[in-house]
Prior knowledge:
mainly beta; five-stranded antiparallel beta sheet; globular; DUF5641 domain-containing protein; DUF5641
Amino acid sequence: MQAGDKVLEKADDLPRNEWRLAEVIETVVDKDGLVRRVKIRFGDRNLGKDGKRLNKPSVVERPVQKLVLLLEAA
């Protein structure tokens, strides 16, 4: 994974159609040189009338095993 990738966050307690869409903003490289964790920014579920965000974006760190890669960054 790399910055700019579009991913879904797996949630064991939700059906797949309710998993949250996110974008990878930073990778965390482990001691062995592999990406094990990434920082992701979630998409906004509610946008204003002008299409802009209403709230500050959520940024969290997640293990790559909990993510599904949808679209690789160019």
